[in-house]
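Journal club prep, shared notes

We agreed each person brings one worked example of a sequence with its structure written out as tokens. Mine is 23S rRNA (uracil(1939)-C(5))-methyltransferase RlmD. I'm keeping it raw so we can talk through how to read the token line rather than staring at a rendered picture. Sequence first:
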Amino acid sequence: MKKRTSVQFYSSRSARQQPKSLLLVPALRVEKLSHDGRGIAYWQNKPVFINGALPSELVKVDITSSRARFFEASVTTLIEPAPARISPECEHFASCGGCHWQFVEAEQQLLWKQQAVIEQIQRIAKTEVETVVPVIGSQPWGYRHRARLACRVVKGQLHLGFRSSQSEQIVEVTQCLTLVPQLRQLLGPLQDRLSSLKGKRSIGHIDMAQGDTALGIALRLVKPLPETDLQQLEHWATQHNVCVWLSYGPDHELVPLRAEQPETLFYSLYNEEIRLNFLPTDFIQANPYINEAMVKQAIDWLQPFAGGALLDLFCGIGNFTLPLAKGTGADITGVEVSKSALKRCLHNAQLNGMTNVTTYQADLSVAKPLPRSLKGKEFSGILLDPPRAGALEVVNQIAELKSQRVVYISCNPATLARDTAVLVKHGYKLLKLGVLDMFPHTAHIETMALFTR
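Then the structure, token by token:
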């Protein structure tokens, strides 16, 4: 049953920092959502992007920013709520900068995410999708296997939690519904232990992660901790069966706290046939349930075959590289800017007995980024999984590689649409498009697109 006991509004940090508007704005009817999850209404012939508003709602707003082509606003009064609005589950919803779509029914979240991607493709890329595949959904809570905690000491008191939606302050959390239970249960004991350290002011932030068989945290330090603190941390880590790494200095190298702890964490893919080692500071997908489905769908769409060659751009530690190489006989080339990630990728390939993986280091955000050694090579398929900025420079070079299939995994519908326009210009058509709900209760949209020619 839907819970409608109260109405709370999420407001972005940027909106809350703006002064109160003196503009007298009438009640606005929200018509649709932007790709970043804000409601869109219209006033004075300009769009108004409204934090905390849903389509069909009638709201009173405060204008937080007035631009030449649009306004930005936040809800002050909800006059007519949308049928999809529900009460948030989390007690920190109104202040935490995290899951700001908790007030939307889960099924409606998926529908609006899919609509947002298609609208961006149509509007920016000026093309249509031949097949929109069903959304791959996630369990709504307890899905997150990694997180970064902010840390700050104010008047001698350590505050540990997530960034506030309203300021740079930290919202202390002793429970987070999105975290897997093992990490969630660690929040309170971790806060207690760190608060007692003499060198707690040296802690910048904390990365925490769950592997298949162990929990791990990495403390980013501005200077080393005193020996007494290290002893207390070691006792705590042993008591709670947690692997702890310390990081300080310009190279951010991680040093294990205990000699007897594992060198790394790991997660598995393909029913534990593939093992990928990682550290809490490495980039891995936070939602392993969606990641497993995403990897399988990417392989299905790329159709690797023995004797073929595939190019994995933004390959990281090998999340797609290794599954593509496993059992297909195809030669896989991975390209990544991070030296540490490439080192981890090659180590993971060796760990899994794979000899058909080659890697190159290259900054894929610069003009003509692909290594010269790849020129003239033909790849039967290309996979790219760029950051939010997209892969504009790379897609301008993809046509030269003569690949028939390109799988593009995106975390930003706007840059996906922009890059789609470039691929279409080079003769590709958008054959398939599908949304993956990597982060339920947020406006974050993970999308997979298949281009063919």
